[in-house]
Specification:
- By secondary structure, the protein is mainly α.
- It has one domain.
- Helix content is 54%, strand content 0%.
Amino acid sequence: MEQKKEFDFFDRPETIRKLWILLYVFCGLTLVPDFFTHREAHFGVDGFFGFYGFLGFISCVVLILFSKLVGLFLKVKENYYDK
């Protein structure tokens, strides 16, 4: 007999929509300090507007992709402990 899954808070469409909006707001807020600070470019490219926000985003994407790749090698079979 299959148990019915309870409808979780994060499964609700309105919650998902609110989380996406929060993500966009926080990503936008990372650009606000660039309006008020003057940065000295040491490598040329790091002087562009929004560079550090973009760098953080790319770093997170690379970290997630790398962890998924490592996960492929570290997975064990489903019946590993049933020996």
